[in-house]
Write a structure and sequence with these properties.
Three copies of one chain form a homotrimer. The first copy, chain A, has twelve helices and nine strands. With 308 residues, chain A is of the alpha/beta class. Chain A folds into two domains: 137 residues, Aspartate/ornithine carbamoyltransferase (Rossmann fold); 147 residues, Aspartate/ornithine carbamoyltransferase (Rossmann fold, 3-Layer(aba) Sandwich), CATH 3.40.50. In chain A, the strands form two sheets. A five-stranded parallel β-sheet of chain A has the order 7-6-5-8-9. In chain A, α4 links the parallel β3 and β4. The longest helix of chain A is centred in the last third of the chain and has 21 residues. The two termini of chain A are 16 Å apart.
């Protein structure tokens, strides 16, 4: 199987074979970041532009590092410094960037669907780096790579996804990815933070953290995104933490070799206890390292590789 | 004719031969941006610094892409993060940057004349990327390149420049450029937005959009820069749009092969209708592409090329 | 003597031999910035990340230019765009960056000790680019290089450091450096801006500018950092300037070949008169040029050089 898409907009539309091909490519590129000279000339003379309409440290830097390690040139357009303040439409901004002949646009936007809207209108490739509460496909891909490294497989696993499911594009992308590849997903969170349609996606729903993690191979904790919630969906952070914060005692309910994941940035002491975040089951920093590898793979496949 | 200036501060001081030499160089470099490997080693080991004291997406990115495609290193100094907040003078900031041995400083500043002030005091080259309401020479150069591509010539054309002439450095640079090269410029806009001295620059003035575009080869719409105006010079945006917004019906008054230009970012539905902006006469995205080519030409001529 | 440290956190912990080795390396690398092609391939494929939690023009750009001239890739994390707003701890942010395999992290932080905190927890090298009121070691190193270029030696000199000693990490790093290398330091400033423990560092204290500069080989003026002071430590800027602003008349009290230094950005007319800042004794712009050289030396020694 190859990956021959112009854009990467979401996991929902990918074939299992495409996902696995991206992961295999990432696994083979991962070694570059551990060399003394962390750079290959593959994308020399290519132009990668990031357009981030929401603040982000790790995702933007991860893409930028991925591009530089492949020798591409990178340019960052950030909101504050952009024409957005001058009232230009997103489409006009994107067409203007495209006229400068970038090879790929990487976009994060608070509006769900913004990358799809652009992808339809632009000749150049578009990667969704997170759109509203819709999808964050590169996060799901790096999560899959991390799970596969730890478990040796992506099928037949029990995965618990815990927290604010309603607003989480990370959850949505991972649910698509894990169910496509044959794992079983249980989501848990306060009733106010679990959307009603979830069972149609083939996942189990519970309102108990204990139940979700029982027998789990993988526990994926979500960030409480206070900045995205607008209003409170639970009474207090302390109450949230009491019922849905992952502590060492919960790990005893899971498989012995359970891994704990978090997309970051973490609210320590809210959704995850420091003991768990820094403990032996945590693969949180492996996730970050795999983020660079997965993004290198996508840039390679979409810009430099099989498209030529 | 060659281009042997240390600085590019405005169109006013350029000879027609210099302008044409820049355009010819841009035309020959333009092809680089369409290659699979969009990069030549011409400016390897050169340092290009942008100092933007006003927000801008396209101009800064256009310069940065131009520099990278010539293999120069680029550094961006933006206002918010700069020592400006610490009360340092512009001259001290510039001298400090110069001490780091950049090959060229690209400056945008709200004060008319700021780049000239620096150019006199610095050894390194200075490019004016827009100074107050004075000049924006690289915009005029990219406009000329776009007109020449469409019309095959720069003389004997009728060019209408429409909108807020008073505050527009784009208008000022284009008026200098077009009249030097033998085209006839008509400006149009509300009486409050047309400065009294304009006729001394050799242009015709009208207060009617219809009159300005009649028989025009080129229509150049200006952005209503609400953020730069400080106070209102017309009653409402709706009234402005009624009298000076370019619609399809105006194009019928112009030459059949008229081209429509806009420096961006556009206020769709204010100074230009979406039908015109996206229509067959629009060359707005060619302008953006030519921006990269013109800036590559300047960097090549000033940093890498004929100065050695 | 070699320089084999993982981190550069402060001058306090360096041996004189290490300091001199850094200066010798800087002196030999300085010539690169004056070449037509200002770039050597030494750090190709290395990744240098700056994390600036305080605004800065010259220090960040100086590091970035230094890295690029050695062919390293650079990435900038600035506060506003960072996860700091999302409540992530500094340690988590740093661990996340480290997981992306940078070769070195350069950090500026308002909390004294922040770089030390990180250095202990990270495998990758950490350079302190200024921490609170504690140290700013690269500033002291560039000051030493500048003094040595002017005086031919670093021992037996009389150095006056004048201004807000209390809040100055520049003063603290220079006091450590100069006393280690055998020069005599006199500090001067308003009594409210001189901390009580200073004499234990082996410096002389005076409250008179005249007394401090009498017979001085070097006068180092400090910036009045209004943005860092929180409250006023003197009645008015005018009063400060009257008693502690360096004018031409003070230079007559110093050695004939005295040099005047300032770390920038300068408040002209407050701590230093324009006549002195721009006069023949001023080496302020040499300091900036030497900043690039010293940072190239550190990156070379810590990332590319003797560690391999």
């Amino acid at each position: 199987m190859e990956f021959r898409r112009k854009d990467l907009l979401g996991i929902a539309e990918l074939e299992p074979g495409e996902i696995l091909h991206i992961l295999d490519t990432a696994a083979s590129l991962k070694e570059i970041s551990t060399r003394a000279i962390k750079k290959v000339p593959t994308l020399r003379g290519k132009t990668v532009v990031t357009m981030f309409y929401e603040p982000s440290t790790r995702t933007r830097m991860s893409f930028e590092i991925a591009a530089k390690r492949l020798s591409a040139d990178t340019l960052n357009l950030t909101v504050a410094a952009s024409s957005a303040v001058k009232g230009e439409t997103l489409e006009d901004t994107a067409h203007n960037l495209e006229a400068m002949e970038p090879d790929i646009l990487i976009i994060r936007h608070p509006a769900s669907g913004a990358p799809h809207f652009l992808a339809k209108r632009l000749r150049c490739g578009v990667i969704n780096a997170g759109d509203g509460i819709h999808e964050h496909p590169t996060q799901a891909l790096l999560d899959l790579l991390t799970i596969r490294e730890a478990k040796g497989r992506l099928s037949g696993l029990k995965v618990a996804i815990v927290g604010d499911i309603l607003h989480s594009r990370v959850a949505r992308s991972n649910i698509h990815a894990l169910t496509k590849l044959g794992s079983r997903v249980t989501v848990a969170g306060p009733a106010t933070l679990i959307p009603p349609y979830l069972e149609t996606l083939g996942v189990e729903v519970t309102y108990s953290l204990e139940e979700a993690v029982r027998g789990a191979d993988v526990i994926m904790m979500l960030r409480i995104q206070l900045e995205r919630m607008g209003q409170m969906f639970f009474s207090t952070l302390r109450e949230y933490s009491t019922y849905f914060g992952l502590g060492l005692r919960h790990l005893k309910l899971a498989k012995e070799d359970v891994i704990v994941m978090h997309p970051g940035p973490m609210n320590r002491g809210v959704e995850i206890s420091p003991e768990v975040a820094d403990g032996v089951h945590s693969v949180i920093l492996q996730q970050v390292a795999n983020g660079v590898a997965v993004r290198m793979a996508l840039l390679y496949l979409m810009v430099g590789g099989e498209k030529e």
